[in-house]
Design brief:
The protein is of the alpha/beta class and 328 residues long. Helix content is 43%, strand content 14%. It has helices spanning 7-12, 29-37, 52-66, 84-94, 107-113, 127-136, 157-167, 181-189, 211-219, 242-247, 253-260, 265-285, 308-327; strands at residues 18-20, 41-45, 72-76, 98-102, 119-124, 140-144, 172-175, 194-197, 225-228, 236-239. The longest helix has 21 residues, at 265-285. Keywords: Flavoprotein, FMN, Monooxygenase, Oxidoreductase.
């Protein structure tokens, strides 16, 4: 297939301007290898690995399989991630190609990665924060819009991407609201240099979760996605399963009270995050009626469980078909 050239493909040396977004529990080495072999690049959350030994083994596995093709790691930058320094040191030592930062100040990540030649892309939801990370030395911002899976932003891509392109001197990557090649092309036309896409890759053969989770992404659609604060304390998108309907999407009175207390807020958020991640883990890997599956509205376009390569190829075909129609 014909390559799609943008500043992101030139920066990373990939064929198509797409990053397979980091997905908690879902992303794994197999997915990143398949992404690289399909002409895009992938990322994995460092928190998907319980130990530094497991994390190192995954990085070695990916690098051995894809050679000098790029791949990235997602680091949670706030205080809930007590393993941040260890994870960062490992990324620098083993030479990952880029880091995506989420939920917190990326200052120390940028300071550590810059001398090592590792690019840092920062999740942002508004212009104010984008300008802050640009000043810190970020190489690009990821515009997380309100259709993103996981921790979504409050603004539409059609508003956020152009605003960031106008305000920033560094490239803007769009995250959220892409489930087909037409929507991918739309984000590029808004001024983005590429996209970060996750949810459509959950239902892939390489995806590291159980078949029930993958099938849910086929069976449910955009109308079934709801926001909850129960998983991390920060609004997060999940599929509105019967169990989610049973427990509700808002924190209970005690959780809300603790989060308002200045002295206890930090510990309450860490506890919420821990409990929420355990809930997601049970749903992703085990058989349970307590299903809590994280996904974005772009599962609307997931019609079957396919390979990573098939997802990429179909989207590239749609993208290029759209481009050809416009050019005619």
């Amino acid at each position: 297939m014909e390559k799609i050239s943008t500043p992101l493909t030139e920066m990373l040396g990939i064929d198509y301007p797409m990053i397979m977004a980091p997905m908690f529990l879902v992303s794994n080495a197999e997915m990143l290898i398949a992404a690289a072999q399909s002409g895009i690049t992938g990322t994995v959350p460092a928190l998907n690995y319980r130990t530094d030994k497991d994390f190192r083994a995954a990085i070695h596995e990916i690098r051995t399989a894809i050679g000098d093709k790029p791949f990235g790691v997602n680091l949670i930058a706030n205080k809930s991630n007590v393993r941040l320094q260890e994870q960062l040191n490992t990324c620098v030592e083993l030479g990952v190609d880029f880091i995506i930062t989420s939920l917190g100040s990326p200052r120390k990540i940028i300071e550590k990665c810059k001398p090592a030649g590792i690019r840092v892309f920062c999740d942002v939801v508004d212009t104010k924060y984008a300008l802050k990370v640009q000043e810190l030395g970020a190489d690009a911002v990821i515009a997380v819009n309100k259709e993103a899976g996981g921790h979504a932003g409050p603004t539409s891509a059609s508003e956020l991407v152009p605003a960031l392109v106008k305000a920033c001197d560094i490239p803007v990557i769009s995250a959220g609201g892409v489930g087909n090649g037409v929507q991918w092309k739309e984000k590029i036309d808004l001024g983005a240099v590429g996209i970060s896409m996750g949810s459509p890759f959950i239902a892939t053969h390489e995806g590291g979760v159980n078949d029930a989770y993958k099938q849910a992404c086929v069976d449910y659609g955009a109308k079934d996605i709801v926001m909850t604060t129960k998983l991390s304390g920060t609004p997060c998108t999940v599929i509105n399963t019967p169990y989610m309907q049973e427990i509700g999407t808002k924190q209970n009175w005690l959780e809300s009270l603790l989060n308002k207390n200045k002295k206890l807020k930090k510990f309450a958020k860490m506890l919420t995050f821990y409990k929420g991640m355990k809930m997601l883990e049970k749903s992703a890997f085990g058989a349970t009626y307590k299903t809590v599956w994280c996904a974005g509205p772009s599962i609307e376009y997931v019609k079957s469980i396919r390979s990573v390569k098939e997802v990429v190829e179909s989207m590239v075909e749609e993208y290029t078909s759209t481009t050809n129609v416009v050019e005619r």
